[in-house]
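Following up on my earlier thread - several people asked me to post the actual chain instead of describing it. Fair enough. Here it is, all 79 residues.
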Amino acid sequence: MTRTNDVSKTAVVIGATSGIGREVAAQLASQGYRVGITGRREALLEELARSAPQRYETAAFDKRFADYVRQVQKYPYHS
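Reply from S.P.:
Thanks for posting it. Predicted structure:
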């Protein structure tokens, strides 16, 4: 059986728009990983993705928003 989608070399890097996150994403991609990159600044994610489009998938979002949603979900809702 031939594997067409080898997920054994897949990684997700949160905060890949700068600093350590960006470098980790770049290193993983250079080692043959398919890398999902996330961060708040979409333009910077796209810039990184253009450097090796076959290696990156992007998703721009603000992690603080996800934290806020989790906090709101804790509130009891009344009808």
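The chain has three helices and three strands. That should answer part of your original question.
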